[in-house]
Each structure stands twice: as C-alpha cells, then as structure tokens.
Amino acid sequence: MRAPLILLGVGLTAWPLTAAAAPQSLPPIPYPPRVALSPHRADGDAADVETMSLLRPTAQATCDGEPVHAAYSDDLAVQTAQSASAGETPDTVIGFSIAEDGRTLEIKPVQPAQGRAATAGADVQAALAAWRFASGARRDCLLTVSYSPVPIAEASSGDLLRYFAVTRTTGPIRDAVANRLAGPEANCGGDRRGGRRPRTVSYPDNFIGQRPPPGGKAWTVVRWNINAQGRATNIQTLGSSGDRAFDAETRRAVAATVVAAGPPRKGCVYNFHRIGPVLPAPAMPDRPDEPLASCPADVRARLQIRPNPETYPKAFGDRQIEGWALVQFDVATWGQLGNVTLLDAQPAWAFGQGGMATVRSARVEPGTTPGVGCIVPVRYHSGARETDQTTQVEASTD
C-alpha cells in the first residue's frame, strides 16, 4: 500500500458547477495508509469472555422478492454479543441493485444502525460491493444477514477461524479464540514469534496464486511451533478462504522466518490476508439541466474545499473500493453554505456521507453573488492505484 501525501497549497481550490456545465471533479481523496495484517477493532472485556457468544452470519440475497445467488462472494465477519441478548440480534438488511455486468450498485442500509451494529453493517456493505452476480440488470434487491448465536466455548473451528481471520478484532475475545486455535499445549503466549527477537523475517508474496477479484478478500490461518534454534516447525494451515497457492505461500513465509534461539515454543498462530486489485468507481453520469440552478463564476472564486482522507469510508478503503458522490448546495453572499444535499453516490451511499462531510467543511469568502444549486463531484481514489511513492491530490481550476 502506497502512503498518500496530500498536497494542498495556497490558491488550490475546487469549484462548484452550474447544473448545465460538464461535470468536474473535486480532487481525488486517497484512502490513508493501512497497516497490513493488523487488527483494527477492540472487542469485549476480560471478565465478559465466558458469557459471550459468537454470532454466525447467514446471508440471503433477493431481487423483486426472488432469491439470487452470487457468482462471487467472500466471507462476512462473525460478530459477538452477550449470551443474554444474542437471540435478539437484529438482521442487517442492505438494499442494492445489480448492473448489467453483474456488479452491485446503490448499496444502502435499509434501516440505519448505531454502535456495533453500524460497524457490522458497514463491513457487510463493503463486502457486498465486491460481490458479483450473473449478468443482467436487476433492481429492488435486498441482502439480509441473519446472525445465529453460539457460545464461544461451543464454537466450531470454522466459526473460530472466521472470527479470528475475517472479523480481526483486538482484545480478550480474540485472545480467547487464539488460545482455542493454538491448542492445549500452546505456550507461544499469543506472540507469533514466541517473544523472541526476529533475526530473519519473510513476508508472503501477495501475487502468488489466484488473487481475489477487485475489492475481494482472501485469508488463511497458520499454526506452527518454534524450535530451540528459532526456526519454525510443524507448520500447518488451520483454515482459509480456499486459495491453496496462497496457503502454501504463507507457510513458506513462516518457514523462512527465523527468530533468536531460546526455549522451544508451541502453538504460534497468525492470520494472513490479502485483497484483490483496486475496484474502480462506476462511471459518473451526466446530470440533467436544472432551470433553477445558478452558480456563477464569482462563487467559484470564493469557494475552497480541502480533500479530507478521513471521509473515505473505512470498510471500503480497506478493500480498495473506489467511489464518488454528487453533492448539491447553496452559497450565501456572506459565505455560509446551506441546503447541502446528496444527489447521487456510487457504488454505495457511504461515499455520499463522506462527500457531504467534505463539502460542509468548505471555506467560502463573502461576496456579492449568491450560489444556488451548486454541484461538486467528490471522487475517492485508492492510493494503491498509484505507481509513484505518493498519491498526489490536486485541484482543478477549470
């Protein structure tokens, strides 16, 4: 992943447009750098682990009430809940459409959620953006994800592996799951290097084998021991999303990693994952003329919008899924923005939320001319698309 560098200098601006003008872009917003193979969310307290349940997800997709089956899908994250309330976990319901080529578009939660449910819903939306269906445009589609509770102590190895590798939380629950996967004689202490200083570190080649399709994810969980000389032994794949070539490559990387000598260790466990190529945003359609819109050039000279990478929806950025939003707004003569409205966003409404936040943060100098119905396209580009060491953000003044 290339680290982005945002270059914003004096006088760089992004202009609103009249409704009749050809669309122009706010400068692309790169997703901030990701730490590869790093957990990203804390889950649970140590005292609660024994009372927690894993929530196994089951997904069903329909269009116009008829079941449809994905030609490609990847694993959804296993969630957690207190056992007392696990049976009351509501379904996650996501609306979407299918384009002629089978790509999912117009992804939007049917019922907005808060807290942990919102995080789970965002992950489901991003996963759905990478799914592919048979060719043929369809509308009025729903993805319903139901959750079946299972106590952690009774969870199958498949549930444990999906939680460990796909959900990728931090905290006591993950530690408890890791201990189960490590085995009864494990003494690696939750550290894949057994507490040893690394001498030689090898990483998997993510281009080995069949990469996931654009926006997709693959995973594998490996367990091994460390001998007195610091070398990995008894290396085995506990489970994976099915890419055997990548499974073998991760075992090779573990075998080639050498740590400092010391007492032997057993049950070192680690999850590797990789994502597919960048999934470009769908084409942005031309907007029809709006007779009441009036956004003159004078307003362009007063408006400055700073691209903000933090508005990139994280779940989509983690998968290198790009998107855009068309945002409309008014500008008062004294410099206040108002009536900020989302006209369209693809492939998911989450990009629209980021686009509106970006526009609301704009600075407007006072002037003599108001702007009505100004439109700004906000585009989100993944830094992984760049071949340079940095992702450059520039503004158009056309």
Description:
The protein is of the alpha+beta class and 398 residues long. Among the domains are: 26-34 and 280-385, 2-Layer Sandwich (TolA/TonB C-terminal domain); 198-275, TonB (TolA/TonB C-terminal domain). It is 19% helix and 31% strand. The chain has 8 helices and 19 strands. The protein has helices at residues 83-86, 115-130, 157-167, 172-182, 244-256, 297-300, 314-317, 349-360; strands at residues 26-30, 41-42, 52-63, 66-68, 79-82, 92-98, 104-109, 138-151, 169-170, 198-200, 217-226, 232-240, 258-259, 265-275, 303-304, 323-331, 337-346, 363-364, 371-381. The strands form 6 sheets. Strands 3, 4, 5, 6, 7 and 8 form a 6-stranded antiparallel sheet that branches. Strands 1-19-16-17 form a 4-stranded mixed sheet, covered by helices on one side. A 3-stranded antiparallel sheet has the order 12-11-14, with helices on both faces. A hairpin with a 5-residue loop joins strand 16 and strand 17 (337-346). Helix 3 packs across helix 4 (172-182). The radius of gyration is 24 Å and the shape is elongated. The two termini are 31 Å apart. Residues 297-389 form the TonB C-terminal domain. InterPro entries: TonB/TolA_C, TonB_C. This is TonB family protein. It comes from Brevundimonas nasdae. Residues 189-214 are annotated as: Disordered.
